[in-house]
Amino acid sequence: MAALAKKRPARHRTRATPSSSSSSDVEAAKRVVSDLRDACATPATTLDAVAAAMVGEMDAGLAAEGGSSKVKMIVTFVDALPNGGEEGSFYALDLGGTNFRVLRVRLAGGGGVAERVAREVPIPHRLMSGDDATSENLFDFIASALAEFVADEEGRDGDGGDGERMRELGFTFSFPVRQTSIASGKLIRWTKAFAVDDAVGEDVVAALQAAMSKHGLHNMRVSALINDTVGTLATGSYYDDDTVAAVILGTGTNAAYIESTNAIAKLSSPPAELGNSSNTMVINTEWGGFDSPFLPTTEYDQALDAESLNPGEQTYEKLISGLYLGDIVRRVLLKISTKSSLLGGGDTDLLTTRFVLTTPDVSSMHHDETPDLAIVADKLAEKLNIRGTSLETRRMVVEICDIVATRSARLAAAGIVGILRKIGRGGAGDERRSVVAVDGGLFEHYAKFRQCMESTLEEMLGEEAAARMFIKLANDGSGLGAALVAAAYSQS
């Protein structure tokens, strides 16, 4: 997942309240909204073209390393997913954002999780970018917190930290890596707010393992390296063995799915790790980098991309994920403020501050059902210092939220359909039940986004096929999933 450049601090000067709007002001604002709707349009033909383009990039990515510059199709070496019969205690480390989590999960067999304990630790910004952002410093900080958590947990259980027992750890590392085995992988690039340059090209498991040893965790083994999407797939599979794919729809987006090894041409000679003859392999698509001429982009997307840390990259993600939707809406409101006085004619400090408006803000306004759209008024005042708007203007803001969220949800659905088509699911005559596990706040908490995505899936698949396809929320796939994969690959 990608992130944009740091926000400029806002000066928070007093913003003028909107003056009485003229008919020309209203018409100018309506033209901005109308142009936005046209530019974000996702008719059925566009969605089918996006799904087909996704399949084409997936095929290219499986054919050869680097075959697709847009969809990496990373071989995860996960060819065995948990089946519900696993037992014992397993640890997980989930690193994917400005906080990381450490977990201890006790599995009781029979598809149950007997206990799950987690701790969240914020990462100092200086370790994510800047002079102190080195691989050694970052992993040293992480291993220190992990060691403290292990000591606390085993002290609580009266374990006493048995030095002879090997502990198994699943490591969720939600950044693009090129894996070389189930428990090793070299970082391709950082995304989000990370810029630890000397870690690029290095084995992140080796770096973590060295740091763990430094902090006394000699008897802890990283048994599986995954990302949050693979973890979500593992969690979905643990509870429902018809799970064929997983999607993250949160701050960022990604997808993983189960592929036949025969379709992975770049596996010219099956590695030793494929010794269980499963004939399947989990593929981490890294679909956030997908791009296509069929994707409906706007001037606001182009400006957002140009100001990002990674211009020209992660195009699909910038159109659909939670990190960006709020800022797209902000940019539309900023343009309206330059064309009319509906949003005030004074200081624009807050309207020009990137990411001051978040996707949860957009969701709140989009779901406002109060007669006078009081929630919209409150959000405009709280986040943008815009006060005194008319009901008509607030309705226009809701419409903008709807346009941006609808495009996002429909494009996400097109990507899912692309994966289903790639593996021969959901077509005419396919009677199999197919489950897609989904994790992430955008899907979980933004009800209108979720409803739109699900209705779009039915539109694209047809009512009969859609009745055999299920979207299931898989909470904490990135954390629980890491422990579950560690259990599946346990050597104890």
TrEMBL record:
Transmembrane segments: none annotated. The keyword ATP-binding applies. Keywords: ATP-binding, Glycolysis, Kinase, Nucleotide-binding, Transferase. It catalyses: D-fructose + ATP = D-fructose 6-phosphate + ADP + H(+); D-glucose + ATP = D-glucose 6-phosphate + ADP + H(+); a D-hexose + ATP = a D-hexose 6-phosphate + ADP + H(+). Residues 245-487 form the Hexokinase C-terminal domain. It is an enzyme of class 2 (transferase). Pfam families: Hexokinase_1 (PF00349), Hexokinase_2 (PF03727). Pathway: Carbohydrate degradation; glycolysis; D-glyceraldehyde 3-phosphate and glycerone phosphate from D-glucose: step 1/4; Carbohydrate metabolism; hexose metabolism. GO terms for cellular component: cytosol; mitochondrion. Residues 34-238 form the Hexokinase N-terminal domain. Residues 1-28 are annotated as: Disordered. Belongs to the hexokinase family. This is Phosphotransferase. It comes from Leersia perrieri.
